[in-house]
TrEMBL record:
N6-(pyridoxal phosphate)lysine modified-residue sites: K248
Organism, as annotated: Parabacteroides chinchillae
Binding positions for substrate per the UniProt entry: Y15, G42, K109, Y132, N186, N291, R387
UniProt binding sites for pyridoxal 5'-phosphate: Y72, A108, K109, Y132, N186, Y217, S245, F246, S247, R256, N291
EC id: 2.6.1.83
Pathway recorded for this protein: Amino-acid biosynthesis; L-lysine biosynthesis via DAP pathway; LL-2,6-diaminopimelate from (S)-tetrahydrodipicolinate (aminotransferase route): step 1/1
Protein name from the UniProt record: LL-diaminopimelate aminotransferase
Cofactor(s) essential for the protein: pyridoxal 5'-phosphate
One Pfam family hit: Aminotran_1_2
UniProt keywords, alphabetically: Aminotransferase, Pyridoxal phosphate, Transferase
GO MF annotation list: L,L-diaminopimelate aminotransferase activity; pyridoxal phosphate binding
């Protein structure tokens, strides 16, 4: 008799974004004529940069002849891409990593979800709340979260980030072994200063904890004093794994490419207290379970670091950040409290009249045909908030603001 991993049975029926897609689809069936503006899932709308398209076409042609064909690549990624990452994303910020500390993958969602494979099931978990649901759900699957009671997992330490604390998480009052931090933050769109991030690195150093640092949105940082990488903080290589993604940086949500940095200085421990280098374990895990990102994709990713690629990526990011500015100004003009959106493509909106997140989501969908993401879907501290993304088309973004203004001023 084959037995299931019963931890899966503890999960809620479906993933947050699948739930929302279902609701939107049923609305479409009952309201076929209404034009929906999607500001829910953080999916990009602008095409890939021309430099990426050109590099991918060239890579396709290479695969067409015997002399330049590529079969299996290195599971860790091709050195042409890893070298470009090291030079442009790290050395340029004074962070020096070895090529074998970088693992190219199909994106940060898979890596943040899979990283726990290397760690025992009885580690304690800390998350900022609200939180990207993958961190929680993947730990539910591994049996680290306990049971769900009133919207909270009993063995997870929730660190609230709300208006009251200006969305700055305090260090946990209970010991945690693994801490998930995402900055710029999904979903609140807020950031951490170097001093704030330093507190977390020092906490992890003092407690032999590990920080899972998701910086998928670092390309959206506009203020020069906000850290792009946790390794800008002294000592972080001893305690942090960093996840990066080309999805939001360069429009790869459908193409799939990202990477994870596992420094060689980072150790975890056996029950007997022996130290184990996590870089070795992740390498072993990836070589067994992953056959690498496609050659075409990696050539496309490499192209974002060319001079034209950089310029084109910047233009697209400016486009989305202009959307974010239009939205922030528009929402404030409607009298709403709104956060984020200055160093991140997400805006975190306090619902009017103390409406619950889902109630406000439904009203927006049915009364103005705008799709957001209910804050409570990201955790208990998200109740009473709604997330909007700036990844839309400009005309749709402006139309959404007009609809909201009319609706709220009725
Ligand atoms: C989001 O909307 O939070 C993201 O698009 C989800 C993701 O990147 O997987």
């Amino acid at each position: 008799m084959a037995l299931v991993n019963e931890h899966f049975l503890k999960l809620q029926n479906s993933y947050l974004f699948s739930d929302i897609a279902k609701k939107v689809n049923s609305f479409k069936i009952t309201h076929p004529k209404d034009k929906i503006i999607r500001m829910g899932i953080g999916d990009v709308t602008q095409p890939l940069p021309p430099a990426v398209i050109e590099a991918m076409h060239k890579a396709v042609d290479e695969l067409a002849t015997k002399e330049t064909f590529h079969g299996y690549g290195p599971e860790q990624g091709y050195s042409f891409l890893i070298d470009a990452i090291l030079k442009n994303d790290y050395a340029s910020r004074g962070v020096y990593l070895e090529p074998s500390e970088v693992f190219v993958s199909d994106g940060a969602k898979s890596d943040t979800g899979n990283i726990g494979d290397m760690l025992r099931h009885d580690n304690s978990i800390g998350v900022t709340d609200p939180v990207y649901p993958v961190y929680i759900d993947s730990n539910v699957m591994s049996g680290r979260t306990g049971i769900l009671e009133n919207g909270k997992w009993s063995d997870v330490v929730y660190i609230p980030c709300t208006e009251e604390n200006n969305f700055i998480p305090s260090l946990p009052d209970r010991r945690v072994d693994i801490i998930y931090l995402c900055y710029p933050n999904n979903p609140t769109g807020t950031t951490l200063s170097k001093d704030e991030l330093k507190k977390w690195v020092n906490y992890a150093l003092a407690n032999n904890a590990i920080i899972m640092y998701d910086s998928a949105y670092e390309a959206y940082i506009q203020d020069t004093d906000i850290p792009h990488s946790i390794y800008e903080i002294k000592g972080a290589k001893k305690v942090a794994i960093e996840f990066r993604s080309f999805s939001k940086t360069a429009g790869f949500t459908g193409v799939r490419c990202g990477y994870t940095v596992v420094p060689k200085e980072l150790n975890a421990f056996t029950l007997n207290g022996e130290t184990v280098q996590l870089n070795k374990l992740w390498n072993r895990r990836q070589s067994t379970k992953f056959n690498g990102t496609s050659y075409i994709t990696q050539r496309g990713a490499e192209a974002i670091y060319s001079p034209e690629g950089k310029k084109q990526v910047k233009e697209t990011i400016n486009y989305y950040m202009t959307n974010a500015r239009i939205m922030k100004e528009g929402l404030r003009a409607c009298g709403l409290n709104v956060y984020g959106g200055t160093n991140a493509p997400y805006l975190w909106l306090k619902t009017p009249d103390r409406l619950s997140s889902w109630k406000f989501f439904d009203k927006l969908l049915y009364e103005v045909n705008i799709v957001g993401t209910p804050g409570v879907g990201f955790g208990p501290s998200g109740e009473g908030y709604l997330r909007l993304t700036a990844f839309g088309d400009r005309n749709d973004t402006m139309e959404a603001m007009d609809r909201l203004k009319k609706w709220l001023h009725q």
